Amino acid sequence: MTQTPRQDRQPAVVVRDLERRFGDFVAVNRVSFEVARGEIFGFLGPNGAGKSTTIRMLCGILSPSGGTGSVAGLDIRTQPERIKEHIGYMSQRFSLYEDLTVEENIDFYSGIYRIPRQKKRDRKEWVIEMAGLADHRRSRASVLSGGWKQRLALGCAILHEPPILFLDEPTSGVDPISRRAFWDLIYDLAGGGVTVFVTTHYMDEAEYCDRVGLIYRGELIALGSPRQLKQEVMTEQVLEVTCDRPQDLLDPVAALPTVNEAALFGRGIHVVTTHADEARRRIAGLLADAGQPQARVEPITPSLEDVFVSLIEARDRAGRPQAEVKA
């Protein structure tokens, strides 16, 4: 999947010191960023980080406790209902009607969005073709697979041709092939000028985005393109250990004094360190003692997962723990 520049300089979303509190709990803590028109912006973080809370404020569903923001030039505090007219929203839970057919669901949302009668048929046929649902148009939503339901939900979210599309964990629980097909649809939409704001906790999906914001415990801890995050934001180095039985060596490697973090990654171990040469020497000695002198220890470009784990570990070392909220 090849990424191409799509965005122009006019921002579609602007957020300044956005905050949301639930009692004494701060779910979103003074978050600031901008999203350009036509950009695919990924909001990446673990469950409970504040992703869904942020997206609900931007969609006019939840009022902010502090800060300011605008979507499509409309104020999220004073114009939430007007914002809803200019956006498409798809939640992580299938929100369509299981007992209605594909066509009936589309017809229902055409009414919700007040699509003019003369356009309804054309928009319905466009959605069915875009989502590849021609063979399922008379099937009840309840019998569709997760991937087909996802495409139907996306189609209904963009029936009214919104300039900005918010997707909240849209591929949660969907198989990898369907996830990839879904991202092909997102790229087609962005190529046509639609701004896409997507929350996800899948690291591989973040690679598809033009820019990514990393949110953790309600705070934005990094912002940039996937390439920038991997090459500029992460100051530590990553070593890849390729060996037999990596699960048996994970704890001994993690216990080495020059290793900041170690995690299983595929058939090997990714090691985060600030002293790569010393760590490499110590790991090689450990592998030799374990009877694996042919194992390899090589420096690599960090993955986004490496970056995120490293930033989270650094934040946890520097700050106080905070209970998570399902948001």
Structure description:
With 327 residues, the protein is α/β, with parallel strands linked by helices. It has eleven helices and 14 strands. The protein has helices at 51-58, 80-85, 102-112, 117-131, 146-157, 176-191, 203-206, 226-233, 246-254, 276-289, 304-318, and strands at residues 11-22, 25-36, 40-44, 66-71, 74-75, 87-90, 164-168, 195-200, 211-216, 219-224, 237-242, 261-265, 268-273, 296-300. Strands 6-7-8-3-9-10 form a six-stranded mixed sheet, sandwiched between helices. Mean pLDDT is 89; it is low at 1-7 and 321-327.
CATH topology of the largest domain: Rossmann fold
Tally of individual domains: 2
Largest sheet: 6 strands, mixed
Mean pLDDT: 89
The overall strand count is: 14
Helix-residue proportion: 25-40%
Broad structural category: alpha/beta
